[in-house]
Each structure stands twice: as C-alpha cells, then as structure tokens.
Amino acid sequence: MASGRTRLLLISVATVLVVAVGIALGLWQLGRADQKLRLADGIARQGALAPLTAAELRTAPPEALWHRTAQVEGEWLSEATVFLDNRQMKGRVGFFVLTPLRLADGHGTLLVQRGWTPRHFEDRTRVPAVPTPAGTVSLRLRLAPPPPKLYELGSGEGGAIRQNVDLAALGAELKTPLLPLSALQISAADDGLLRDWPQPATDVHKHYGYAFQWFGLSALFALLYVWFQIIAPRRRARVQSAG
C-alpha cells in the first residue's frame, strides 16, 4: 500500500513539474512574440519619420537613429570596398558588399551596406566586379546596426574579402574615421546587387506556434494523469465491485 502511494506521489510530482515547465515555456514564447511586435511597431514608427539629412546623422546616438531613413549625397570610396563572406539573401550564399561613402559638405564617412552579390564557387578568392559610379551620388538609406558578426578563427585578416567588419578598426585602417553607425542602401542602382534586406521582427508566428506546442504538451500530460491516475482506477474499481 505504501509503495503504491509513493508511486502515485512520484507520478504526481513529475506531472506537476512537466506541466509547470510547459506552461512557463509557452508563456515565455508569448512574451518573445510580444517583444517582437513592440519592436516591429517601433521600427514602423521610426521608418515613418521624415528622412534624415547627412548633417543630422551626427546629432544623436546611433541606436536612436536605427531604422530611420536618410537621404544623403556623397562620393563612394570604391577602393575601400569590403566583401563580407558567407552572407545569405533569398537562401543563397554570397557576399554583402560594403563601401564607405564620404558624405558631402564634410559630414563624415558612413559605411553603406550596398547589397548582396553571389560568390564565385570555383574560385572563392575572386572578388566580383561591382560597378561603382564616380563623383557625387544621391542615396536613399535605412540606418541599421552593422552586419552581425559570424564566428571566425583568430582575430580576422584585412583584404577585400572578410568574415566580419569592425567600424572603428576599418576606419583606422582606411585612415578615415567612420561614423559609428551603418546604413542599408534602399534606393535602386544599376550595379547588379540584390537589396532584399530582411525585415526585423517578421517571425512572430513562429513563437505562437512554439507556445501552442508547449501548452499542448502540458495539457496532454495533465489529461494523461487524470485518465490513468483518477478515471481508469475508478472504472476498474466499479467493474470489480460489480463483478
């Protein structure tokens, strides 16, 4: 009798733990979805503001300018173009093409993520030819954090093809300090680059799906406990008493 009670107690405790963990994880996923919805709302509000000018890029902390649009003029420093390797767009692997833009009227130099280009798979060291106009260009940009860093062995090397880029280090290398923010080019250009930039906070439904799975798992364990530990024993007891 005591062993049966001990077994029931262990099963009960285990069920409560599983159900509690499942509910907690489901609530966490709902919280993540809510965070991303708030992020998407903030991004939409930032994008709806009037485009910034080059002069305004220096007037606020970089994080306060993220997701704002900007209309600027400047000259490409084409010789300083960097190709970030192992970057994806539309499921294909290639390079993100980054070129510093010297802003007009002495407002500094901004690193622009110009777009994506495929990699030469027979020769991984070959740099693709990207048409870069000389003289003053006018660009529509969306301010954004620098490209996320990928894992690399060692401290990384210079050269045109790189795994990651650091704004301060690149500015020191070019002897041209870069503004402490980056930008995505969203205006069209005849350079053959893809600019299908991913939109942040677009995977909210994934978190809803995970939450449903965790809540469903908790409900399943609760139902199994009720069936096997409460309903089934009572049914057996009624059958035995009737017999």
UniProtKB/TrEMBL annotation:
Pfam families on file: SURF1
Membrane is among the record's keywords: yes
Record bears the keyword Cell membrane: yes
Spans traversing the lipid bilayer: 208-228
Lipid bilayer topology: Multi-pass membrane protein
CDD domains: SURF1
Cell location: Cell membrane; Membrane
Primary location class: membrane
Entry's family note: Belongs to the SURF1 family.
Protein name as annotated: SURF1-like protein
Organism: Hydrogenophaga atypica
